[in-house]
Specification:
The complex is a heterotrimer of chains A (284), B (336) and C (265). Chain A has helices spanning 19-42, 74-110, 112-127, 130-141, 146-172, 175-183, 187-223, 235-241, 243-247, 252-282. Chain A has 284 residues and is mainly α. Chain A has a single domain, classed as MetI-like (MetI-like fold). Chain A starts with 18 loop residues before the first helix and ends with a helix. The model of chain A has no long low-confidence stretch (mean pLDDT 82). Chain B has one domain (10-329): 3-Layer(aba) Sandwich (Rossmann fold). Chain C has two domains: 4-234, 3-Layer(aba) Sandwich (Rossmann fold); 235-265, no CATH class. Chain C has helices at residues 44-52, 75-85, 103-114, 120-130, 135-138, 147-160, 177-194, 205-211, 229-234, 239-247, 255-264, and strands at 4-15, 18-29, 33-37, 59-64, 67-68, 86-89, 165-169, 197-202, 214-219, 222-228. In chain C, helix 3 (103-114) packs parallel to helix 6 (147-160) and helix 6 packs parallel to helix 7 (177-194). The mean pLDDT of chain C is 89. Classes of the chains: A mainly alpha (284), B alpha/beta (336), C alpha/beta (265). Chains in contact: A-C, B-C.
């Protein structure tokens, strides 16, 4: 396969050759996912219970990770925040992968004017900053998780569709595709039953890497106060809320979500890279 | 091209492989299992075998180009020096000047973005064995020798045909004035008429420059047509070796005779081909006897138990076959 | 007189300024075997791909059992009908099978498409048996098979459709000599049993002699010689055919004379 995954310059420098790093990252991904899934049952406090008497308290046996400026338990907010913070990127990745594969595959298979139109329009999206698009859609649609997810899905679609297009172009050159055509299989059958499974590992590896980036972008949006409603626990939102706490000399409630965002992005990136490397090696 | 019968007596052969065993990770038996082969100065030797027989690995061992993880035993001497024990500098000297290699697919072996002239002069100027001007002069001379003019120097590989590109590869191989040329299926990717041209060229250059040639091929007829001596390989062993004409007229190993019989030929009788049933043994499978036993019409109990040794045919000291039943081929219909 | 299995009339195809196929016509009788011989760039593969429908002709038509083969298929019924006219075996057994599909799944897929609602178990066994593959090979993925075995699978897949004509595009060129002979014998057996017609594309005159009744020799897109294989090989009329024959290596072969003859042509 000649296709190259799109990686952001900084993160792609983290090499995945050493397997302990991969294992640690994989473990971290599993942990965060588990936290998101089980959050409702394991949280010690309601994340929105205000305990102003205890505001800005450090770690205590009652509040293991302290309390923020509004007197809310940081651990509970982190655990429940994992849910919002992972659900958003998941939506982005699912939508951008499905749509991107469809667009890329159609463009590669049909070729001609359709390919030109589809390729040019995805390039147009490339040229338009994803964050700006998100802010635009949110300002029209209003508050809620849906608007930023749709906006970022559109922004991430070209990464997937371009990759898919090049993979399908390479794959359809293989004689087995001609063989199925000669056998009388329809183009749709060949694409879905044979080409798609053969290119899926590479596309999914790209999507895993995209997951980390989408998480970072969504956190940035919530930090700006866009998207996630004010009371919903979310890591990006928590960093925003914690600004005042930092000014008062109690940085914990802002730093912890920051650290989690960074670690999760890195972990997903490493897992995705490792997967991509594996796939590349299998195809020689 | 008569076989120089005194060639094996030459004191220092250009290439002398003795008892070469190579084991690769993840295999149950050696990929090469005791290969003995030599090429005298100026001699053309063909190494014939099917895919997976180890013929390419054998030829590459002369440059110590072995796959990672290979465990090697034996000796591979080029002009008397063992390449398996050389240090990196000595090895580089061998690879750039003493031994040259021609690959099967010239298009895959050339960088499409560099001019042919750069490709030709690159190795000698990099090792500083020649200045740029001398190198260009030599390149022009060699291009003429292979039937191209110096306009080819400024062309890109994409601008010339496959046959011409293989001539360029041959010219490049001769740049360092090698004593041994390894040609690994150099004509398989070419058309038959182009193949004849490249073979004619190799024969002419061999005479002119006195280079030894090890010609690796799967094509028995081609081997017979061009070489002085032939080695036939099967499953990592040399099963038969000898002067080309004798080996093809009177094969002494059942594999050679079966291979000859299964080749679709213009002068063979019409009708079904005498195919060899089955497949060569898998590398994951251990062998206790003759590797060909499972497919051999002559095989008996001993073939499964004891590895046959290469023994000379009666009256022909240079014709060797590794078969327990080589005598049963004598006077049989295979002696055409 | 039996009708022809395949008829090509006045095929033309140009790529840019290159005339890949230039006025090529041939007929293949029912159950016959026709070889197309030529070197690379002779247009033999393009001609074959036009017959199969992977390439479109600029002019000319292809008839199978007297019926004109439409240039493009519209709809499922027509697509399947076209597939039952002509099938193809490709050169590279390593790339012509989907690496993820097992041998049995390959055959079942084809049978489901063309013969829905019938008992496929029986037919799969028959097909595997016909191409000399055991039931153990049925579960294997292509990567677990040797080149010869893969080519057997490709042949079984083509036969599953029960076509009138089988196009073999250098189908044995990538195989070792001993395996090549097995496949050539297999093809001869199948023709005897099924009266399928072969269009055999090859550069190897030995192979042509072995499996074809008639042969056409192509050079630079045009047919330079055509006739019964035995006659063409025994008494070639065109200098190019003679050159091709002389180029086949054999003891006492003179490559220099051939090189000179090639330059003269």
């Amino acid at each position: 396969m000649t296709a190259v995954l799109t990686r952001r310059p900084g993160l792609s420098k983290i090499r995945t050759a050493r397997s302990p790093l991969f294992l640690v990252c994989f473990g971290f991904v599993a942990l965060v996912t588990a936290a998101a899934l089980l959050a409702t049952w394991v949280v010690p406090y309601d994340p929105n219970t205000v305990d102003l008497g205890n505001a800005l308290a450090g770690p205590t046996p009652e509040h293991l990770l302290g309390v923020d400026a509004a007197g809310r338990d940081t651990l509970s907010r982190l655990l429940l925040g994992a849910r919002t913070s992972l659900l958003g990127p998941l939506g982005v990745v699912v939508f951008s992968t499905l749509a991107g594969v469809a667009v890329g595959m159609t463009a590669a298979w049909r070729g001609g004017w359709l390919d030109s139109v589809l390729s040019r329009s995805t390039e147009l999206v490339f040229a338009f900053p994803g964050m700006l698009l998100a802010i635009l859609i949110i300002s029209i649609h209003g508050e809620g998780l849906l608007a930023p997810v749709i906006a970022l899905s559109i922004a991430y679609l070209p990464y997937v569709s371009r990759l898919t297009r090049s993979l399908v172009l390479a794959e359809r050159e293989r004689p087995y595709v001609s063989a199925y055509q000669v056998q009388g299989h329809s183009a749709l059958q060949i694409c879905l039953r044979h080409i798609l499974p053969n290119i899926a590992p590479v596309v999914l590896a790209q999507s895993t890497i995209n997951f980390g980036y989408a998480l970072m972008d969504l956190a940035s949006l919530s930090f700006l106060g866009l998207g996630v409603p004010a009371l919903t626990p979310d890591w990006g939102r928590m960093v925003f809320d914690g600004q005042t706490a930092i000014q008062h000399g109690y940085p914990l409630s802002a730093i912890l979500p920051c650290v989690l965002i960074v670690l999760t992005v890195v972990a997903f990136n490493v897992v995705g890279e490792r997967w991509a490397d594996r796939v590349a090696r299998r195809d020689r | 091209m008569n076989p120089p019968m005194n060639a094996p007596m030459n004191p220092v052969p250009t290439l002398d492989i003795q008892g070469l065993h190579i084991t690769l990770p993840g295999t149950a038996r050696p990929v090469l299992d005791g290969v003995d082969l030599h090429v005298a100065a100026g001699e053309t030797v063909a190494l014939v075998g099917e895919s997976g027989s180890g013929k390419t690995l054998t030829s590459r061992s002369a440059l110590n180009l072995l796959p990672p993880g290979a465990v090697v035993d034996g000796a591979v001497r080029v002009s008397g020096q063992d390449v398996l024990t050389m240090n990196a500098d000595q090895l580089r000297a061998v690879r750039t000047s003493t031994v040259a290699m021609i690959f099967q697919d010239p298009r895959a072996a050339l960088n499409p973005l560099r001019r042919i002239g750069d490709f030709l002069t690159e190795s000698v100027t990099l090792t500083r064995s020649m200045g740029q001007a001398d190198a260009t002069a030599r390149a022009t001379e060699l291009l003429q020798a292979v039937g191209l003019d110096d306009s080819a120097l400024h062309k890109y590989p994409g601008q010339v045909s496959g046959g011409m590109l293989q001539r360029v590869m041959i010219a490049a191989a001769l740049m360092g004035d090698p004593v041994l040329l390894l040609a690994d299926e150099p004509t398989t990717a070419l058309d038959v008429t182009t193949q004849a041209e490249v073979i004619a060229l190799l024969a002419e250059l061999r005479e002119r420059f006195g280079t030894g040639l090890l010609f690796v091929t799967h094509d028995l007829d081609l081997a017979a047509a061009i070489s002085d001596r032939v080695y036939v390989m099967y499953a990592g062993r040399i099963v038969e070796s000898g002067p080309a004409e004798v080996l093809f007229a009177q094969p002494r190993h059942p594999y050679t005779s079966a291979l000859l019989a299964s080749t679709p030929r213009l002068d063979a009788p019409q009708g079904r081909l005498a195919a060899i049933d089955g497949q060569p043994p898998d590398l994951r499978q251990e062998l206790h006897g003759c590797p060909f036993a499972a497919r051999c019409p002559l095989a008996t109990e001993i073939c499964d138990q004891q590895i046959p040794e290469a023994l000379p045919a009666p009256g022909l000291p240079h014709h060797q076959a590794a078969c327990h039943h080589t005598d049963r081929l004598e006077g049989s219909p295979v002696d055409a | 007189m039996p009708e022809n299995a395949l008829e090509a009339v006045g095929l033309h195809r140009t790529f840019g300024s290159v005339r890949a196929v230039d006025d090529v016509s041939f007929t293949l009788p029912e159950g016959g075997s026709l070889g197309i011989v030529g070197e690379s760039g002779s247009g033999k593969t393009t001609a074959a791909r036009i017959v199969v429908g992977l390439e479109r002709a600029d002019a000319g038509e292809v008839r199978v059992r007297g019926q004109v083969r439409s240039a493009r298929s519209r709809g499922r019924a027509q697509r399947l009908a076209r597939a039952r006219e002509v099938q193809m075996v490709f050169q590279d057994p390593y790339l012509s099978l989907d690496p993820r599909t097992s041998v049995e799944a390959v055959l079942r897929e084809t049978l489901r498409l063309h013969f829905p609602g019938t008992d496929h178990d029986q037919r799969v066994r028959e097909l595997l048996d016909q191409v000399g593959l055991g039931t153990r090979a049925a579960e294997a993925r292509p990567r677990q098979l040797s080149g010869g075995q893969r080519q057997r699978v490709a042949i079984a897949r083509a036969l599953a459709v029960e076509p009138a004509v089988l196009v073999l595009d250098e189908a044995v060129a990538a195989l070792d000599v001993s395996v090549q002979a097995q496949i050539l014998n297999l093809l001869a057996d199948i023709r005897e049993q099924t009266s399928i017609g072969y269009l055999f594309i090859t550069h190897d005159l030995g192979v042509v002699r072995c499996v074809t009744d008639d042969v056409i020799v192509m050079r630079k897109g045009r047919i330079v010689e055509a006739g019964p294989t035995a006659e063409v090989l025994a008494a070639p009329q065109h200098p190019y055919t003679r050159l091709l024959l002389e180029s086949v290596p054999r003891p006492g072969w003179d490559p220099e004379a051939i090189a000179a003859a090639r330059r003269a042509l």
